[in-house]
Design brief:
By secondary structure, the chain is an alpha/beta fold. It contains 15 helices and 14 strands. Strands 4-10-9-8-7-5-6 form a seven-stranded mixed beta sheet, with helices on both faces. Strands 1-2-3-13 form a four-stranded mixed beta sheet. It has a three-stranded antiparallel beta sheet with strand order 11-12-14. The two termini are 25 Å apart. It binds pyridoxal-5'-phosphate. The site of pyridoxal-5'-phosphate has 14 residues, from helix 6.
């Protein structure tokens, strides 16, 4: 069989760093050549050798409408003929902001950016500017983009490097980050109320914000314990720190109003990305008017040539209209499909009974952990008990059977409105075969 992916990888290795533009797409994650994709349609991806895959990665969550949705194609085709980008004020910018403010009770004003990383950078600066405080409290294993201040303890580490749970050792995830950049970033164990209470007693009065992923989404899928996020919010109110909910993954995905809606939260600052753009780069910072006023000219600076890109805004509008139509039927559908798929994986794993498997998910997102535990509740559990190489083997074997999941156990899978019950059944069948084949 032709292997055009391999020859593209050989060419790519000569001119691109590791053959790709982000580590999760290349050999660091695939162990060798990744599959090069040529096009997508609905829930399917097609590679350069003409192989077809049911796509459960959906561009890391950026595609709630799947690939080449007719409304997306129609919108882009219409709008691109009128110009790609103006970097001026736009009618669609006001329209989309009105839709968002109408949808999200905790958001009075929005500011558009392009990526989750950029939005988070602006949010941290805003939190510091608004409070006049310097410290940022973040959690182990949580990722808020790749900026210097928060790129610590976001990647899995050997358990012996984590330190005492009361005082996690802070470890940057990259060379080239000056210590000053994360000097004021405090790292706390997640899903552990006492750990945060202790940290807040020590640092709460100097903390500009406590930032949390709503559902932990960069160590597989780890849901918050009941009441945990609300407890973070209460502690923030008590100490005068802003409660910053990073909904880059969960926003416009787990519910129309994201996890703020799902868990009844009132964050002071939120950031969104991924699904918001419906497939083009789009992100936003949102919050109460009083906090967002900090971004006014002369206070806290946030710039960007490509902010509020008109094509992306038109896609955001289409994504929202489509997902919200018929009483938010799109959200009900992706939730149903996600829960069904997770249930099927559990059923198949139980029937095979050859490997320790735990499936964790929330609505449309799920992840499969190869582990001897019954539950993975935080970063330390993940680092200690999850067999990441086994998951990679599982995902690569699934790829050979036409099922696409990213081979990194730290990532997760997602349903979209174009997945079907038949896709779930085909995926479950392939998984059953793979579980039998795996050593
Ligand atoms: C919770 C969270 N915040 C921020 C980001 C950064 O978003 P982006 O990749 O768009 O810069 C990510 C990306 O995965 C994320 O998962």
């Amino acid at each position: 069989m032709a292997n055009t992916s391999q020859s593209l990888f050989d060419r790519g290795m000569k001119v691109l760093v590791e053959g790709v533009s982000s580590a999760s797409r290349g050999p660091a994650t695939f162990g060798g050549a990744p599959r090069y994709m040529s096009h997508g349609q609905g829930a399917r991806l097609y590679d350069v050798d003409g192989r077809e895959y049911i796509d459960w990665m959906m561009a890391f969550g950026a595609l709630p409408l799947g690939h080449a949705h007719p409304k997306v194609v129609e919108t882009i085709t219409r709008e691109v003929a009128r110009g790609t980008h103006f970097a001026t004020a736009l009618e669609v910018e006001v329209e989309v902001a009105e839709m968002l403010v109408g949808l999200l009770p905790h958001v009075d004003k929005v500011r558009f950016a392009n990526t989750g990383t950029e939005a988070a950078m602006a949010a941290f600066r805003l939190a510091r500017g608004h409070t006049g405080r310097r410290k940022i409290i973040k959690f182990e294993g949580h990722y808020h983009g790749w900026s210097d201040a928060v790129l610590i303890n976001t990647n899995p580490l050997p358990p012996t490097m984590l330190g005492h749970p009361n005082d996690p050792i802070r470890i940057p995830d990259s060379s080239g980050i000056p210590e000053e950049a994360w000097k004021d970033t405090i790292v706390v164990r997640w899903n552990d109320i006492e750990a945060l209470e202790r940290a807040m007693a020590l640092h709460g009065r100097d903390a500009a914000c406590v930032v949390t992923e709503a559902v932990m989404s960069n160590m597989g899928v780890i849901p918050p314990k009941p009441g945990y996020l609300k407890h973070i919010q209460d502690l923030c109110r008590h100490y005068g720190a802003l409660f910053y909910l990073d909904e880059t993954v969960t926003g416009f995905r787990l519910a129309a109003g994201g996890c703020a809606e799902l868990y009844g939260l009132e964050p002071d600052i939120v950031t969104y990305g991924k699904a918001l753009g419906g497939g083009l780069p789009m992100a936003m910072i949102g919050g109460r008017a009083e906090v967002m006023a900090g971004l006014e000219w002369g206070k806290v600076l946030h710039f960007g040539t490509h902010n509020a890109g008109r094509l992306a805004l038109h896609l955001t509008k289409v994504m929202l209209e489509t997902m919200l139509a018929d009483d938010q039927a799109g959200y009900a559908k992706i939730k149903h499909l996600g829960l069904k798929m997770a249930g099927e994986v559990r059923r198949v794993a139980k029937a095979s009974n050859r490997h320790g498997i735990v499936v964790q998910g929330v609505n449309s997102m799920f992840q499969i952990f190869f582990t001897d535990q019954e539950e993975i509740t935080d970063f330390r559990d993940f680092c200690t008990h999850v067999d990441r190489m086994k998951f990679r083997d599982f995902a690569l074997r699934l790829m050979d059977k036409g099922i696409y999941m990213n081979p990194s156990a730290t990532l997760h899978s997602l349903s979209s409105v174009v997945h079907t019950e038949a896709d779930i059944a085909a995926t479950a069948r392939a998984m059953a075969e793979v579980l039998e084949e795996m050593p």
